[in-house]
TrEMBL record:
Domain Helix-turn-helix: 5-56
GO molecular function: DNA binding
Pfam family, one: HTH_17
Highest taxon listed in the record's lineage: Bacteria
Name recorded for this polypeptide: DNA binding domain, excisionase family
Amino acid sequence: MNPRFYTLADVAEVLNISMSATRALVHSGDLPAIQIGGKNAWRVEATELEAFIQRQYELTRQRIKSGELQA
């Protein structure tokens, strides 16, 4: 069974980014998360992580199409 929620460390591993980059995504609101218990106990729902990834794919496609990025 797949987990419903991921820790920020899990998210950082999945996205292959640093913990500070992961925290920045959460604090900016780009990656929705909930805070459970203590101040550092953030959780990201698996569906939110997948939706974030899909949004990044779409943004990248748009940037390539507009010429802002080159594939």
